[in-house]
Amino acid sequence: MSSHRFSPSQNTHGLIPSLSHGNYPSTWHQSFSNTHISYGNSSIMTTNSSYSHLQSPINSEDSSREDIGMGRRHVYYHQPIARPHERFLNRTMDNCPEHLTSKQRSRWFKAGRKAQLNHRIVSTIEPFQSTEANYNSLTYIHGKTSENHLVGLISKMANVRLYMIDTESDRPTGNNPHTKPALLQIQAIHYETCSTVLLIEIQHLPHYSTSLFGLIQQMCSNIFSPDNKIIAWGDPIKELYSFEQFRLFDISRITKTLNLQDFFNTMWNSAHPHIQACLNRHHVMEDDCSSDEVLICLINSDDIDDDLKPQDSKADFNQCICPDEIRPYKTNNALWSLQKAIQMIFNKALDKALTMNLWSCGLDPHLNTWRTIDDKQTRHALTTYAVNDVFAPTDLYFYLMNTDISSLDTNHIINFNMIYEQPIQNLPKYFVLSDSHGKYFPPYHRTAQYQLVIKSISGLQWNNPWQQELSVNNLIESTSIKSIISTCAGIIFMVGTNSIRSWSASEIIQDIVNITQSIRSTYDHLNRKTDISICTIFPCLKTSTRFLTSNLLTSNINDYNTKLYDISNTLNFTIINFPITISHLNVDGLHIRAKHTSLIFNIILDNITCLLNKTNKIKNSQRSSEAKSRRNKRVHQRQKQQQQSHIIFRLVDTIWKLKDIKQYLRYKQIKYSGLPDIHNNKLYVQFNNSINLQHAEQCLALGEFDSSHYRIWMTHERP
């Protein structure tokens, strides 16, 4: 959370102008080729012509300093401070500098008291730490982020409607008297125990004219939209105000916000009214101040609200004498610190020692702004701090949402294990365990028929003897995965690409045999063919030490897929095949390009629907005739609705008869579900799912059913 906030009246000297301004700093248009970045005695050369520092380094001594001459620009990066609080810990009345003014002395002591309090808290209480299992890999957003990764993130967060945000800024300096926006932390909350965390490094964004900046802008625009709820510890609009000038979002589009700080204060006060002795004392003080003479002497702006509601046992007022466990703040309109809230609710210490620091230093090691190993470690500590600053209020938010406020007594301190996802009753849950091919899938998806939980682990293999955390064989024995499998209606494995580059097809197939048999012996409810599904392996061109050429690797993949089909009947599991070709691969020859994520995801959804229908047919055979009739009616109604939403339209010549069209569609291998009668030369073809619909769209041109195509079909193309 930023230690200083930007106000509308402040001068934005050195910062990018807002969207409404038409003029931009000339430094934006300078070429960034042949840029020399130096760190004392160390230096590196960068040639990224699209990269731009958003605040002029001339006005930003904490971030960098530029010397331009002989066609080369030197950028000297200052480094963040590893332990900025240590110099405040020994401040006392005895060592206060004598030359300070009264106001300066007050600030000097206040900084010391805050540092000493923080040190005391973190020294005596268990630290608050975000749980890595609750969020996917952290993503830094800056000028070196790949466009493919951003496309995937946009797809992954498309249906997220709840976001926690925070910001960090650099402190004012002698050369720049205003705070400098540096970091925007965004936690996209898929569900209570799963998030995607973004750290947008404001001072390291690409030039606004690049396509990369356009994607970052699109992502932020999607996040800060009227459809989404934005939460912050404080006013979200004020938190974001100084960041709007960087063209990432339009703050006027943010309409759903929650000031969690105010909300927490209200909830706490409702559960912790003043004790009677405090109320009686407050009432006596008001009676003592009833004469006009005393009133003139004692009235002040802080007491006005107290006088308006003297009997309100939940309101804050000055000179409160309640125990600290009930009312830790003793003044009217006091603002809860996030650290205090975490301490009171979870009995955890949220370390705030790094608050005042150089946040524009470039936290991501890939930005290469660090000089020594210590510099990298300091950046790691700052990153941990930034992530904790969004997870802490998120944990508070869900705690307040899930807790009966009347049960919030002074001894009600909970463990983090009590915060968990509330399951949806009577809705089948399917579980997808995937390697990095599923990293852009939403971690949670729900339809009217089922819910889907997705766990994606980069580097996952069927069996990895050296890294158990990357081995399906070991993961299915872990507590977290066991808890999911034990309650799921079916499990889908999208694993194999990492295995196929290291092991022969026969070795992998044996691992699959062992894993499926282990699951069946452990979980009795997963005994049907539809309960376990395994995906075929995608094409791969990234060779390995085991398979030195693409031909050898492709041969191993084909052998694996063939053997997988062979054992599917023996082991009683289903196979999911994807229409993925080499053209879908990313430049690395290993991963699928992010823009094709929806194709793979939709095929999985359609397969789950088919699996669920097959399972229901088995259950249906044991029902009464009346129950079967009612269910069939519902199924037919759903199918009718699906067919009405999956329709293509083509004009058809009168020479085409309905039987000819049916035969032609079969020849084209188009799987349709319905073919209504032709009216007014219009043909409507219905489908059960989007996959068959897309295939038909590709195979049937707009003029496919004209007279010329009919003659060709009748004379040459008939099978």
UniProtKB/TrEMBL annotation:
* InterPro entries on file: SGNH_hydro_sf (IPR036514)
SUPFAM superfamilies given for it? SGNH hydrolase (SSF52266)
- Disordered: region residues: 621-641
Q: Tell me the protein's name.
A: Uncharacterized protein
The family database entries (Gene3D superfamilies) matched by this protein are listed as: SGNH hydrolase
What superkingdom does the record give? Eukaryota
The UniProt regions of compositional bias labelled Basic residues, in chain numbering, are 630-639
